[in-house]
Structures are given as structure tokens and as C-alpha cells.
Amino acid sequence: MSSLLVSEKELLLIQTAVFITKHKSCFLTVWTFLVCHEDVVKIVELACKHNLCIIPFGGGTSVSSALECPEEEKRTIVSLDTSQMNRILWIDEKNLTACVEAGIVGQDLEKQLAESGFCTGHEPDSMEFSSLGGWVATRASGMKKNIYGNIEDLVIHIKMVTPRGIVEKNCQVPRMSTGPDIHHFIMGSEGTLGVVTEVTIKIRPVPEYQKYGSVVFPNFERGVACLREVAKQRCAPASIRLVDNAQFQFGHALKPQVASIFTSFLDGLKKFYITKFKGFDPNILCVATLLFEGDREKVLQHEKQVYDIATKFGGLAAGEDNGQRGYMLTFVIAYIRDLGLDYYVIGESFETSVPWDRVLDLCRNVKERIVRECKEKGVQFAPLSTCRVTQTYDAGACVYFYFAFNYRGISDPIHVYEQIEVMYIRAIVEGEKLMSPNILGKLRKRWMKESISDVGLGMLRSVKEYVDPNNIFGNKNLL
Amino acid sequence: MASLTSFFAPAAPTPASDKEIWVRGAEPPSLLAFGGGDQGREGKQLLVSQKELTSKKRDEFEDILEERRLSSDLRYAMKCYTPVIYKGLSPCKPNAIKSAVLQSEQVQYVIKQLAKEMGESPDIIQEEATEILDEMGHSMQLGAVRFFAFTLSKIFKQLFQRVCVNEEGMQRLQHAIQEHPVVLLPSHRSYVDFLMLSYLLYTYDLALPVIAAGIDFLGMKIVGELLRRAGAFFMRRSFGGNRLYWAVFSEYVKTMLRSGYAPIEFFLEGTRSRTAKTLTPKFGLLSIVMEPFLKREVFDTYLVPISISYERILEESLYAYELLGVPKPKESTSGLLKARRILSDNFGTIHIYVGQPVSLRTLASGRINRCPYNLVPRHLPQKPSEDIQEFVSDVAYKMELLQIENMVLSPWVLVAAVLLQNLPAMDFELLIEKTLWLKGLTQTFGGFIEWPDNLCARKAVLSGLTLHANIARLVDGHVVLNDKGVEDGAVGEIVFKHALAILMCATYRNQLLNVFVRPSLVAVALQMTRSFRKEEVYSCFSFLRDVFSDEFIFFPGISLKDFEEGCFLLTKCDAIQTSQQEIYPTDKGSVIVSFLSAMFKPFVEGYQLIFRYLSRETKEAFTEKQLIPGVRNFVFQLLEKGNTQCYEALSSDMQKNALAALVQLGAVKKKKMSNGFTYNVNQEAVNKILDMFDARIPVQKPVAARL
């Protein structure tokens, strides 16, 4: 079946190529669905032969314009849709690895692995739609990385098709000391070098027990201090996040209407206890949400340890519901974004990582910058500008920002939005350093040089030069 | 403005705006077409402001003493004081700040380092740090503030007729204080400055500033402690070598800034200007307050230039004595009490103009790369990079230029300028006429004249004479300098008395100089070169600008721009005409040109005298302390013999500036010794500069050579 598909495409492609040579002034985009690794090899060969441009396409969840066709591209563009390459090829229970085709999306992967009692534990916010290949190509980070690790820790083996041929390691060992790891050329290459077709990834047994939790802190500073301590003692649960006051209130506003008078009474009582009895200012307090995973016994023990630390920083346990709702919010926001457009609201989110000692400064400065920039660009209402500390590392933390503004009364909202967005990233890049699963793409590549120096950029360029001299993978990301 | 930019390149497109524009250096095509040699700092973004040179709109003034004269001072001092504060402030006590400073990583790091190096226990050094902090720290208390509010009301009402403030400026300041940490940068002409400013903020219900004061004040019994409670903190005059002191001091200032505890106030000029000319800026404190922004510890910092001008300066005669070498009395409480007789005197009006707050973020954007700060832990003491140092210096100059721009000039300033050119006596009617003429010229040059209530010129001049009866008086329809006691003294006595009167008078003329300096140096250059070729005039201008770089305030490195501005202003008042290659005075303009160069003649001549002394009389290395009496005697003798009329060369301020200029021009070598700096003169180089000054040889600057 697959060969049939490709031969059809072949025909079409050759026709287009001929067409192009005749009418040099126009270009076409060809959409191809691929079914397996061999398909990809054929298409790439064909593209090299006819000098076409390929843009790989996975889940299409990019927020950094990485999938946009470059305007100046005059060749025929072939969009390689990998969504049909979605099978688990094998599962190795002895070594706890699985070989998976790169087009599979997160939720399908987890579902299918769960059937055999396993999981990857990799949960980026976009996991409902984003693909394994996309994770590899963008160095994705997952919510539960404290237990399972980020994509670079999860990947054992990668197969990638490049214009030069196929690149892969000849073994599946846990670690190699044979020079720089070639996986690191692939991870984060953002589709500029080739198409990732198959990935061998670590798997884990599905955890026995899962528990949410939450802690209220009197203010953001104390919350950050607590997270820092947790990171220092290396006892972070599967996920620990600190949500600032604005985001907490936002989440609260989204809370569904309660079913009974009793629950609303209980809620009222809780609120009274926290604000009046404990003296927390509802406009300053912030919340940490927690997720524990593992053996039941260990989870309970772990939970106690974390809550003990939190108490030292003035934290107050605030129940499982709040925690669960916090994680829901992450997914909900993606949907709210579209809804918001109907109400003149444009929003976006960005992530960055930062050393511990500068977390507070970064959060304050970026939020401040958004407010100021919106004001200068003539946005009439105060924007929503909020952040959460979303990951903890030994040396620093990951911070996730949301911003949204009401564009009523602005003549050209998209333009303003773009300007603010560009400024926003600039603030972050200037602010500390860039990182994060979705920070580069086209939107942000102009800061590449500043962040990795001329020589660093040259190193990446020379790799590109060798692997893809004719710029077949011409999505112009990164470099 | 259009005609300014089109001065050299008619088609240069410049965005016209009534605000300031930040321009990239070395871009205008005119620079390539003409000279541009010393503009070589390519890519450097200049903080040059293109001033709107025609009648700039300024705020209206409001007299704050008026209300004080009508209502009770006691009630005013006891009023409910709930100041506007920084939005991110978590209120804390002065002592909490001190302990935060002691515990800070910055200070602890230095303590540990020192302990390791000196082999002492950290506790001892910690003790030392605590002592430093106790000596330094303020302990602001509302009680003391109220005490000052009461007594200062009484005193100010006695001393001054009016204290005028631009209320819009105060409102802008109020917003600024709420938004970001604020640094107040007032001009410094008198001890009254900081008292007045705190008084002002109290009156307008704004957060009271903490003020960097000299340690000398602590020598005053009771008063020192009172000042401390009113928000003054004390810094030693020099502590470059003392790492512990530096760490504690800078951390103290930065902690207060970061937390938004209070606006921080200090004087860029470092000390009171004895001559009423703005002094060249000091960079130490400025670089400290800029650091939190550069390290991204605060989002932004506002710098607020404040211009305080006095119709009559409280310390005017003290200054004149000091400039002539009579030592300044030590700050002491008994001295203060003795000085109370001045309470019966009238010191006219004070004008305080609070400028537009300048956002440091805006100044730095596109100019400063803050990334290097990312790579080093923030508590390590770091020497600022050259880029940063240059930036600090540019910001300092920019702030001083903003101070100058908004400095109010009283009619008496004009009278003093005219009078000094017409000594020993001047016809009263002529003086009025000339003063009016100068008023027009000053306004053309962008000077900020407050002519009280459209008073007629005669009355304005008369009231100036009344107020300054100690300087000049009216005798038989002629105005003469008030140098009493001249008749019955020895020759030396006469010269001294005369010099005193002239220096006092010059203090007022000096207030005009920074407004006039660019067109005037063009005028001087025109007279010195006796040529109309633009290039020659420019190289002479640029030479003068270098020589006078410590005397007047020039933004670093934009010689050509200053020249263009000077020419533009002269063209505007029809004094000169310019073509592509040439500059020539118009018939009508010769009056202006000669007036302007006469205005700066004391400096040209004074410098010549000082240079001559240096080239002839100094053979060995000397210190500044040795030099000044030497020059003074030299000039004194010349004056006694009547060989010169340049009394202002006696001013120690001018002597120091001249020396500093020579050091910068490379004609004098400055060496650091254990007991301070010593200087070595390169006779040949000084002679060469002298020759250029005397116009015996044409100015040969590298710029000109490359043309």
C-alpha cells in the first residue's frame, strides 16, 4: 500500500517540478501523507533530485511560526505530514524501551502503551495533539520530568532521514562516550536537518498510585523560596508548580458552579480560615500545585516530606481539588484561547528558564514589561499578565508566562499583538536565557546569535551545510 | 530644528518632534562630508538630545511659601502625612534595612574574602562592617521630619520672598515614585538644596528621600543626628581603596533602591558649586544606583533631574572667599548658630524645576547589553565594563544638561553679565537697555528667564540692585561694584577686595554660561582664527571645547554637534551667515559676536595666565595644593602691577579646571603617590597649547589635519 501511495505522489511531484521549471514565477505546496520510514526515504530522495523544499509536519501545535512556509521560498514546498506514521513498532519489557513511529501523538502513545501496562511519562502541555517526532525536533519538556525526565533523557535511539542519508546510532545502549552525542544535533533541530521517523524511547510501568495536592503561600516570594528548598533537597514530586496570584484568581473564576449548598458553605469556610484566621491577603497569596506518583506508601511518605518543607515557608495545605484544577487549567487555556478571540481577547504563552536567584526578578520584570508595552501600544484595558514557576531544576527553574489583552478599540490588533509578542520574547531572552520546548522557530531565531555566540552559531551552520547543502529542509528555523 | 540639521546636509531627514530624540552617533551624512574625525566611536548610540531650541514650553510655577504665610506652621508640621510610595514597597524600618545589608550575600562575601586575606576572624570584620553601617545609616523618623517642617517653615519665610515650584513636575514625580524606584538628582549650589527638597516633598505628600550627605555633617553636634533622622545618610569623602566600606556603602544604597524604600537623592556634582557653574559630574554613586537595573533586579529606575536656582545664594560671600584661598569654615553647630544673623537678610526667590523623570530603561535600550551580568553570580563585586562606564558617564552628562536646561535665570543674572563687561562704572540707563537686549538673546538661546510678573525693565534691574546691594550699587546714575574699603588700603588689599566683588558678581553671570557656551565658543573661535573658513573655525572651536571641558558641561564626544548647535543659534539671531564652506559675521552681528566673546574672555585670559605660569614657573613635580597658592601669587602680582585685568584667574576653581584640562590634553602627567596625586608639566606641550591660544600658530588638531 505504501509503495502505491508514494508512486502516486512521485507522479504528482514530478509533474509539479516540471510545471515549476516552466513557470518560474509561481510555486506550489504539495501535501503528502507518509505511512512509514521507507516512504520518507523515497520522498526525500525525490526532493533532492528535483530540488524541492520539504517542511516536516507532526501535530501542528507549534506556537513559534516554525511551520510557516518562508515567504521567499520559490521552490515547490512539500509538506510531509507524519500523522499516519503512528504505530508502536515494538515494546521491549526487559529493557523497558519501546520503538515508536515518530508521527504518533502523545495521547495515543500513552493509551496504546497503557494497554500493555506501560507509560512514557512524557506530558508536555500540548500532549493531546503534539507528536513524538515533534518532541524530539524541539527538545520538548514534560510536566512530570522530575520522575521521567525531559525528552533528551527519555530518548534511546533516533532514526532520521536527511538529504545525505539516514542518521542513527548502531546500538541502543544507555550511554556512550564516543564523542559528542549526535542525538543532540537532532534534538532541537526543528526540522532543518531532516525528518525523524522512528524513536526508541524509555518506558515505565504505569504508576500504582497518583495523588494531587496543593499548598497556599502568603505571597509569591515565599512560594519561590519553598520551591527552591524542594529542589535543593531533591525531593520534588512528579510535578510541582507555583501559580501566581493573577493565575490563581483566573483559575478560580473558571471554577464550575458548585452542586450543593453544603459545598459552597464548605468553600466559604475554607476561604474564611485562610484569609481571616491565617491572615493571607487574597490579592497576594499564591498556590503551588503538586502531583505525586508511584507506590502508594512512597507517595504518602513523599507527600509528608514536601508538606513539611512547605510549612517552613508559611505554606498551608489546600487540598487535592485545587491541585487537580490547577493542572486542568493548563489544558483548558488552549481552548479558551480560541474562545477569547470572540470576545476581543488575544492571548499567548511563553516559557523560559532562569537561575534560582533571579526567578523573582524575571517574573516581575517580564510582567511589568507586558503591562508597559500594552499601554504604549494603546491597549485600553489592563492586560492579563501572569506567570507560574512550572519546573524545578537543581540550578534553576522554568517559568511559564501567559499574557492576554483586550483589543477593543485598536485598529490593527494582530499587528499590535505581534509587536507585543516580539517584545515579550525579547524581554525573556534579554531577561535571562532562552530554553523551553517552543522558544525558537522563526519568531525567535534572531536572538540565536546573542544567546549562543557567533562561533556556536557557526558550528550549527556547518552541520546544516554538510547534512543539507541544498537546503532541502528549508523551513528557515533556527539558523 | 529643521534648519539645525540641514546646516551641513540640507537633505538629512531627521524626525521632527518636540520631544527628545535618541539619535545614533556618527550617522548624519554631514559628518562624513565634514570632519568627523573625533566622532569615530561608531555604532555608539549617543544619548544626545536634540533640544527644541525655540521657546521650549515649560511648566508654570507656584509659590509654596504663600500658603505658609497664611496658615499655622505648627498645624502644617503636625499634618496627617500619608505619603505616596512605591507600589512594590513592603514597608520596613531603617534598622531592618541595615540588618538586611549586613546579611546580604554581597557584604558577607567581601567579609569572608577579607577574613581569608588578612587571616582574621570574620566576626571582627563583621563588627567593623556594623560600625561602618552605624556611622553611615540614616534613621528616618517622622518626629524629626515634623521638627524640620516647623523650623524650616519659619526660617524659609524669613530668608526668602518666594519658593516657586513647577507643580506639574511634582505630579510627574508623584507618578514616577509609585511606578519605579526613583533617584532625585538636584543641582547643588547651597546647603539649602537638600533641606528645601525634603521640605518640598513633605509639603506635597510624597515619600521623603534618603540623601547622600558628606561625612563632615556628622562633625556638627546635634545637627548631624537631626539630619540623620530626617533621612540623611553619610558617606566618607574618599573610600576607593577600602573594599569593606565600598561593599557596605553600595549595598546599603542598592538595598534601599531595590526595595523602593524611598527616593534616593544625591548630587551629581559631588559638592556645592562655588561658582554657580555646573560642575563636571561624579560617577560613583550614579553607577551604584544604576546597577540594580543593569543586573535586572528592578524593572526600571527613574532619574529625575531637578534644577534649583537662587536669586541670591546664601553662601555667596563665603564662596568668594573660598575661591580666593580663605579656607572654608568647618561645618559646626556653633558656626551655624553664628550664621543666624543672615536671617535678617533677604535672599529673594528660589525656583525649583522638577524635570521630566528619565527612564533608565529607555536610555539603555539598544545601547547596553546586559547579558554579561547573566554569567556571574550577582553578589560578586564586579568592575563595570568599559561600555558600562561610558554609559554611566553619558547618563551623568545628560542629566546635568537637563538640569542646566531647566535652570531658571533671574534678571539679575543678565545685569551681572552686562555689568562685568563694563567696569568700573556703567550708566544706569545703558545698563537697562543692554539688559533688555541680553534678555532677548538669552531667550533665543533657549535660556529659561523668569521675569517677575512682566515687570518693566527698570524696576527689574532696580530690584536686582536692591537685593544684591552687597555686590553693586547705584551712584549718581552710574552702577558700580560695591568694593567698600578699597580707598583706604594697601595695594594688595585693594586687589583682594576688588577680586572679591568681581568673583561674587561673576557667580551670577556664570549661571548664563552653560546656555551660552556653544554659540560663544564659535564667536571666540571666529575672532581667534580671523578666518571665515568653516573648517578652521571648527578646529579652533573643538580645541577650545577640549580645553574648557572641565569648565563647562559638554556631552562627551559630540564636538561637531555642539559646533552645529552653536552656529545654528548664531544664525538664528542673525549674528552670522553660513555657506557650505564659510562662516562670516553679519554687519549687525558683530555686536553679538563681540559681546559673546567678551563674556568668555575671563576664561580665555585666565587659562592663558595659568598656562603661562605652568610653563615657566614649575620645574619639578607638584601637588594641586602647592600649585594653587603659586598661581594665585603669580596672578596677584600681575594684577598689582596692572599687567592684567583678569581677576577671575585668582579663582581656585578655574585653576583646578585648567590643570585638569592640561592633564586631559596630555600636557601634564598625573601620577598617583601615597599622599595623593602629583603632577609633572611637559613644558613643550603647554607652550604649544599657549601658542594656539594666543593664535600665534593655527590650531592643528588631528581632525583638521585629516580634512
UniProtKB/TrEMBL annotation, chain A:
Keyword Lipid biosynthesis: yes
Residues carrying the site annotation Important for enzyme activity: R241
GO molecular function: alkylglycerone-phosphate synthase activity; FAD binding
Cofactor(s) needed by this chain: FAD
Pathway this chain belongs to: Glycerolipid metabolism; ether lipid biosynthesis; Lipid metabolism
Binding-site residues for FAD, renumbered to this chain: 56-62, 138-141, 190-196
Binding site for substrate: R337
Keywords assigned: FAD, Flavoprotein, Lipid biosynthesis, Lipid metabolism, Peroxisome, Transferase
Reactions listed under catalytic activity: a long chain fatty alcohol + a 1-acylglycerone 3-phosphate = a 1-O-alkylglycerone 3-phosphate + a long-chain fatty acid + H(+)
One GO process term, biological-process aspect: ether lipid biosynthetic process
Gene Ontology cellular component terms for the protein in this record: peroxisome
Domain (FAD-binding PCMH-type) ranges: 24-206
Family indicated by similarity: Belongs to the FAD-binding oxidoreductase/transferase type 4 family.
PANTHER family: ALKYLDIHYDROXYACETONEPHOSPHATE SYNTHASE, PEROXISOMAL (PTHR46568:SF1)
Name this polypeptide is given: Alkylglycerone-phosphate synthase
Species this protein is from: Accipiter nisus (Eurasian sparrowhawk)
UniProtKB/TrEMBL annotation, chain B:
PANTHER family, A to Z: DIHYDROXYACETONE PHOSPHATE ACYLTRANSFERASE (PTHR12563:SF17), GLYCEROL-3-PHOSPHATE ACYLTRANSFERASE (PTHR12563)
Signal sequence, renumbered to the chain: none
Subunit field text: Part of a heterotrimeric complex composed of GNPAT, AGPS and a modified form of GNPAT.
Catalytic activity: dihydroxyacetone phosphate + an acyl-CoA = a 1-acylglycerone 3-phosphate + CoA; dihydroxyacetone phosphate + hexadecanoyl-CoA = 1-hexadecanoylglycerone 3-phosphate + CoA
Membrane-protein topology: Peripheral membrane protein
Entry keyword set: Acetylation, Acyltransferase, Membrane, Peroxisome, Phosphoprotein, Transferase
EC number: 2.3.1.42
Disulfide bond as UniProt keyword: no
A GO molecular-function descriptor: glycerol-3-phosphate O-acyltransferase activity
Pathway this chain belongs to: Lipid metabolism; Membrane lipid metabolism; glycerophospholipid metabolism; Phospholipid metabolism
An example Gene Ontology biological process: fatty acid metabolic process
UniProt protein name: Dihydroxyacetone phosphate acyltransferase
All residue ranges annotated as the Phospholipid/glycerol acyltransferase domain in the record: 182-311
Keyword ATP-binding: no
CC per GO annotation: mitochondrial membrane; peroxisomal membrane
Function: Dihydroxyacetonephosphate acyltransferase catalyzing the first step in the biosynthesis of plasmalogens, a subset of phospholipids that differ from other glycerolipids by having an alkyl chain attached through a vinyl ether linkage at the sn-1 position of the glycerol backbone, and which unique physical properties have an impact on various aspects of cell signaling and membrane biology.
Family: Belongs to the GPAT/DAPAT family.
Pfam families: Acyltransferase, GPAT_C
Cell location: Peroxisome membrane
